[in-house]
Design a protein that fits this description.
With about 450 residues, the chain is an alpha+beta fold. About 40% of the residues lie in helices and about 20% in strands. The strands form four sheets. The protein has a five-stranded mixed sheet, with helices on both faces. A hairpin with a 2-residue loop joins β4 and β5. α1 packs across α6. The mean pLDDT is about 95.
């Protein structure tokens, strides 16, 4: 019998789905499976946490895979799989739409359950996968066979990670997926043993449940997939999320408390409060707003991250130091947010040229700038240098200019920006949809520090 702290038992009582909840969700799953089998085109399989009994009460995300003959060509799988998924969804609800990952699938809302209907191949071995989703049925079988007796530990870990904002392998979170949580519980034999081990983790911690790793990995946390020796299940976990988990594990072991399982209190912000905050900090806030590309988070968010870095470099190259920058994908719009240390610059700037002894290029540089009304060219440390007019004197001018499209964006973000964007400054950056994001932007701290502050 596992010995648990009283508050852990109290938390678990809120996490375990009730029998009525199980019957409701499983009833929908059974009806979907029967409809898929009745089509004669594929077999259905429930995967994910609901299939593995590791779902938290209230998290009604049902993943149903449509398993097709592996002899079917990839294009035919996408076409026939999507058509079947659409027809199955339409038989249950009118609330469904296509989503796109490695290939398209159908997302539907049936009663109050969020359902993904995902086509994949019915393969005999994980070594023969033809797309990333083909692994998922093997994950489900692996966990289901081994997780009995540790389900409560998985629930505790999931709530522990969710409450701290480090649960989820999406690009916004860069944290711990549900499957990773399950594997860690299996590896260490429970919630507390995992925390004891994690409190001593260091970058490049290596965990190989089946001892079959077939390649090397560079990520901070490496957990070899038991069903695929060439995959790191923890590849999405950033160094910061790993460090936050280590800090949380140490904090909980030192002073266990139910607050570790409680989501943080919202930190609201208003336009007036934002104005006062910026005045006190002496910094300058800019937001870029544009339409959200019509793709799933796994595709869009990495591109938002890439664009944020590229725009920061563009600002820095033009003399506007960036103190902090971040991004957020909303349902209809996305936001880039930049806190700058400088907002306005002089008319002129220095422009460095080639060394004088690089004769051809030096003479070209001199000829180009010799007729300027500004000082130069002159020689500084053996190189030509001159003064030139600054292209952008104000940060807002740069962010609103077509030059924004010339930096290193991902394909879909560039396409959305190409349709137009808005630049907001100061309290104008406040939009209700992004209020929690903006509040968090100015109240950064690690999850454990937040817990200490709230105690």
């Amino acid at each position: 019998m596992v010995s648990r702290l009283p508050h852990e038992e109290e938390v678990l009582a809120t996490l375990r789905p009730t029998q009525a909840e199980k019957d409701h969700v499983c009833g929908i799953a059974e009806r979907l499976l029967a409809a898929i089998a009745g089509s004669g085109k594929a077999q259905g399989m429930v995967v994910g946490s609901i299939a593995r009994h590791t779902w938290i009460s209230g998290d009604r995300d049902l993943d149903v895979f449509l398993l097709f003959d592996p002899a079917l060509p990839r294009e035919a799988l996408e076409e026939q799989g999507l058509a079947l998924a659409r027809s199955i969804a339409a038989a249950f609800t009118d609330r469904f739409h296509e989503k796109y990952a490695e290939h398209p699938y159908i997302n539907a809302v049936i009663d109050d359950v969020d359902v993904d209907l995902v086509p994949c191949y019915d393969i005999a071995s994980a070594e023969r996968i033809q797309s990333a989703v083909d692994r998922t049925p093997f994950h489900t079988r692996y966990i289901t066979d081994k997780i009995n007796g540790l389900i409560d530990d998985v629930l505790l870990l999931k709530r522990f990670a969710k409450s701290s904002g480090i649960y989820g392998s999406d690009g916004m979170t860069e944290g711990f997926s549900g499957y990773l949580c399950e594997l860690l519980i299996l590896r260490y034999g429970g919630f507390t043993p995992l925390l004891l081990a994690a409190s001593e983790w260091k970058p490049r911690t290596f965990i190989d449940p089946e001892g079959h790793a077939a390649k090397e990995f560079d990520e901070p946390l490496i957990v070899i997939d038991p069903v695929d020796p060439r995959r790191n299940v923890a590849a999405a976990v950033s160094l910061d999320r790993m460090a936050e988990f280590v800090e949380l594990a140490r904090g909980y072991l030192d002073a266990p408390s139910p607050v570790f399982f409680t989501p943080p209190s919202p930190r609201p912000i208003s336009p007036d409060k934002l104005d006062g905050l910026l005045a006190a900090r002496g910094t300058f806030l800019y937001a870029i707003i544009f339409d959200t590309p019509p793709y799933i988070e796994e595709i869009v968010v990495p591109q938002l991250k890439r664009s944020t870095y590229a725009i920061c470099e563009h600002l820095e190259r033009n003399g506007f130091p960036v103190h902090h920058a971040h991004y957020r994908m909303g349902k209809n719009t996305c936001m880039f947010l930049f806190e700058l240390l400088v907002n306005e610059l002089p008319v002129i700037r220095s422009h460095s040229g080639p060394p004088v002894w690089n004769r051809v290029n030096a003479e070209k540089f001199r000829a180009k700038h010799i007729s300027s009304s500004l000082p130069g060219p002159f020689i500084n440390n053996g190189r030509y240098e001159t003064e030139v007019p600054r292209e952008f004197r104000r940060a807002g001018e740069l962010l609103a200019s077509p030059s924004l499209l010339q930096v290193g964006h991902g394909k879909h973000v560039r396409q959305s920006l190409g349709a137009g964007w808005q630049v907001h400054r100061g309290s104008e950056c406040y939009l209700p949809e992004f209020a929690p994001f903006i509040a968090g932007f100015f109240s950064r701290c690690s999850p454990y520090v937040r817990i200490l502050q709230e105690k």
